[in-house]
Write a structure and sequence with these properties.
There is one protein chain. The chain has 284 residues and is mainly α. It is built from 12 helices and no strands. It is globular. The two termini are 34 Å apart.
Length: 284
């Protein structure tokens, strides 16, 4: 049996492959966002349904899960499209600013935020500006990708904050199913409004969708959620940052992506700031 370190390593491998798989898939971005949540919901539904005790969900928790699901839809609906507009490494680093936005949103809600966290926010934002400056000089398309990835990180922070209370009262599988199902419905509406096809690509496209769901949703996020109960949120937050170099390495070896020195420096500064935020939140 794998220990906690082994499971966390598997989780990092899973989330590291998620972004390159999405960038390489010959499937529209919004369709990828929809199918990864829809497929995950289809797998979870019979599991949750087979446990009657876990089906009891109060109205308050149902509303909370619905709001969290909408935020998750915004996260996937902005981050996945960003992967084809900017580099995988840059997009992944910017979406991993969720701990930054969590600190900001916590303070706006009246919560306590340590000085070290604000220092981390300042450092990370300097890294963001450095990356954005390079992309602005390169192409407006890449800058749009940066903005979408940042919005995806903000939506993820809201998703985590909104769902915190519900996760205390609901089983992980029940909470996850409700969030994924809501996200799938919201993304389905977005796909239909945008006129994006939900099928019609070759078998390789469907295989990519299955791989993204397995790596990103189940192998990645499910193992990180499991680790929350044993090693704690600060450790999981730090470990999840390994997705950035992991995804960059996979994209370099598989997709042939290369980072400009200034972009690489910006990503290092950004990750350092996020690490300070995580460390400050642990002390708090």
């Amino acid at each position: 049996m794998l220990g906690e370190a082994g499971l966390l390593l598997l989780a990092v491998v899973g989330i590291s492959f998620s972004a390159p798989l999405a960038a390489a898939a010959a499937v529209p971005s919004l369709a990828i966002a929809f199918w990864r949540t829809a497929m995950a919901s289809a797998v979870l539904a019979p599991v949750v349904g087979a446990r009657p005790a876990r089906r009891r969900v109060g109205a308050r928790d149902a509303r909370t899960c619905a709001v969290a699901g909408v935020l998750l839809a915004v996260h996937f609906g902005t981050w996945v499209p960003s992967l084809v507009l900017t580099s995988v490494a840059t997009s992944t680093a910017l979406v991993c600013t969720a701990p930054l936005w969590t600190a900001v949103l916590t303070r706006l809600r009246g919560g306590r935020v340590a000085g070290a966290e604000w220092a981390g926010v300042a450092v990370a934002l300097a890294g963001v500006l450095l990356v954005a400056g390079v992309d602005l000089a390169g192409s407006p398309r890449a800058l749009l990708g940066d903005a979408l990835a940042l919005l995806g990180g903000l939506a993820m922070a809201g998703y985590l904050l909104v769902g915190a209370a519900a996760r205390e009262r609901l089983a992980t599988s029940t909470y996850t199913l409700l969030c994924y199902a809501t996200a799938a419905l919201v993304l389905l509406a977005a796909v239909l409004v945008a006129g994006v096809p939900l099928a019609g690509w070759p078998a390789a496209g469907w295989m990519s969708l299955v791989a993204i769901t397995l790596c990103g949703q189940f192998l990645g996020h499910s193992l990180l959620n499991r680790a929350l109960r044993t090693v704690g949120a600060p450790v999981v937050a730090v470990v999840s940052l390994l997705e950035v170099p992991g995804a960059a390495l996979v994209a370099a070896l598989w997709l042939g992506e290369r980072l400009a020195p200034a972009t690489l420096a910006g990503l290092v500064v950004l990750l350092g700031g996020v690490a300070l935020v995580v460390r400050g939140s642990r002390r708090t």
